Amino acid sequence: MRSLGRLAIALFGIVLVGCQTVAPRATPLDPSDPRPRALVDAWTEHARKREGLRATARLAVDADAAGINLRAKQILVVERPGRLRVEILGWLDQTAAVLVTDGDHYEFFRANDRYYESGAVHDALLFEVAHLALTPEEAVEILLGAPTLDRTLVPTRSGILPDGGIVTELVDEAGTVRERVAFDALGRLTELEVRRADGAREWRAAYRDYREVEGGVVAHSIEIEVAAGGSSALITLQNPELDPPVPASLFRLRAPPSALLPQPH
Question: Which of helix, strand or coil describes residue 141?
């Protein structure tokens, strides 16, 4: 799998992370205020209804520690719970490489040398091929623009932002903050930070530039951070389609007859 190299990193550059922003100061809300819990519940219901997305994506990825500075155009198709298809386009918009997962298996094909590789999907797949510590399911939710929130967590410190939005921290039974979430005045998710049991950040996603499309409203700009790797990315979606009809075959490839198969190490 490590033989996928930088091109695999480019494929998963859309979900690499790290755009630092400074949150505006929030005015504290009374702990009994029902709005934070209501927003969390309403968003979770909304997010669960979004099943898939197809779009062209322009991305800028910077991960100085790994020597990655990527600018690319891609075709992106994602579908819950863990189906993903990413095509990197060349300068004439021809397909340069494709990576797909169908939830159980992944396949990768590189056009210039007809290289093909496949294997079983597992939680560490994105880290192994792209130094990205997200499971395929987490990556799909982030790219869908509809990450679900953990309803077992309880809102604690909350505040109202200058634009009328609300930010709240969600804690587990031990009182540890596990998620930090912000909504705009219309109840749309603007930021989600997920933390480990020790309180350290795992990843953060921020959503901007919401626009109406057929079937709903989509954030056309996504910033993502993943603590492992210290990388940053800005994803700009073009012509996104919500829940498009997608055949299962789109998330599978067949090895071309002349493909170069991986050599044993």
Answer: helix
**CATH classification number, 2-251, choose in 3.40.30.10, 1.10.3730.10, 1.10.540.10, 2.50.20.10:** 2.50.20.10
Q: Cβ–Cβ contacts within 10 Å for residue 43, how many?
A: 20
pLDDT tens sequence across 169-193: 999 999 999 999 999 999 999 999 9
The answer to whether 190 and 207 have CB atoms below 8 angstroms apart is yes
CA distance 128 to 135: 11
Query: What amino acid is encoded at 75 in this protein?
Result: I
pLDDT per position as a tens digit, 218-227: 999 999 888 8
Compute the chain's Rg from CA coordinates. Answer: 19
Report d(CA 121, CA 139) in Å as an integer.
13
- pTM for the full model? 0.84
